[in-house]
Every structure is written in structure tokens, then in C-alpha cells.
Amino acid sequence: MIHPSTFSIVAYDPLENAWGVAVASKFPAVGAVVPWARANAGAIATQSFANTSYGPLGLEMMEHGLTAEMTLEKLLKNDPEYSQRQVGIVDTQGNAVSFTGQSCYDWAGGLTGVNFAVQGNILVSQSVVEALADGFSSTGGNLPSRLWHALFL
Length: 153
Hints:
The chain contains four helices and eight strands, in the order E-E-E-E-H-H-E-E-E-E-H-H. By secondary structure, it is α+β, with helices and mostly antiparallel strands. The chain starts with 5 loop residues before the first strand and ends with a helix.
């Protein structure tokens, strides 16, 4: 049975000085909504009734020196529907945050690790985001390879 879920990872590779996002979703053309990344700024994944302004606004904030946490706080503060949102952010230093609003569909949640954040909603359980984190953390190679392994291992 195919489960109608969305899960993503945002990550930073300090050796390559590169940022990236990988996402899998039931929604077609999800690449036009969820992933946002910019060199020397960071990466953002916005999902669960995605607020697409989070991408460009958040990247601009981080480009001007805000941390991932400060960026998340500002994005949520200015969004009256933040309880429906889910977002992961990693900044220029690899600081990562993941937010899941209380109105997201179960199972929904996220976690952070060194230089990455993973999040998902409409999942079977927390084990999905744990597997994403493990796939990224346990894989060597360049950032695109590690992002791919996070989604498909």
C-alpha cells in the first residue's frame, strides 16, 4: 500500500561548503514547493500546507546573517497558520532546526543532527525520520549522494 506522506532532509556539507534538500512526497511537482537552497545562505524545506514564502524569505534572512533558529522564529511569528506548517532549516554554519506544527497530520515530526534536519508528516511512525537521519549520517561521499541515501536506504 502506498502511504500518502511527505518527508524531507535539509543538509550542509562543511567540506564542500554546499547545502542541499531532498524530498519525497505524494504530491506531484513537489520540487516547486518544498526545497529551497542558496549558496552561502542555507537550505529550507517547507511542507504540510507549505508556505512557499518560507523559502525565499528564510534564505534572505540567513544570507544576512541570521541563524537557522532565528530564521525559523521570524518565519513562524509572521505566519498566522504556523500550526499547519512543517519546516526544516540549515544555515551557513550547519546549525539545523526542524519544526512541526500541532495541526499537522499524524504521524508528524522531525529531528536534527550534525549539519542536517529531517521532517515528515502523514508517516507510519517516527521510525521514518529516524531512518532518514541514519541514512544521511551513516553514508560517506558527497552531499548529493548522502541526500539520496537518506531518502532511499
